[in-house]
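Lab meeting tomorrow. Please check the following:
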Amino acid sequence: MLTKGLSYSSPMQVKPDWNLIYPLSEFYEQSGLSLPSVARVEGLDMPAPYRSLLVHDRDMTPTLENAYGRGIRLRVLQYQVRDNVVSRQVALIAEGRDKPVAFGAIKIDLENFPQRARRLVLELKQPLGTILRTQGVAHISRPNAFVQVESDALINGALQLSGSHRLFGRRNVILDSEERILAQVVEILPPSNGSFTSGERL
């Protein structure tokens, strides 16, 4: 978990604890939309199957690849680049499936990436977790909030849902080996049929 008082060498600063779905909240603000209902959940209280998918310090992309037994591709819903920071709203799709297996938003600080990895981020074709792995970028993940979110029109549209759903997710900070911020991300998972347990595929 991130410790209060830590300072990171990056133009991006970690958001206060109350902003549980940053950086997704920025897309709501830019669109003039009200934020969905969101509440903090302690990791130990996260229900199955979400706990095994969210409560850990691994990247989400390989976690989903292992859960679904297939590769994960990126669908960019919105993005912008400003001051060497890429902000994008995304869905992650398991190969061979149509419906997303995750939705969220990420801010990526290009200054702290090697040149090749920076180019791949700007191509908007691969999930960040895939780029970090294939380019050998040393990093650590530090989830600093687990959340429960009531789905709204924006989230339903991204996850191809209808009606109201209680969803679960996490807010994560990805740091390089010098503890500079590489990215801040919020990741929200779609509803589960409840059959997933550790070691099984969804």
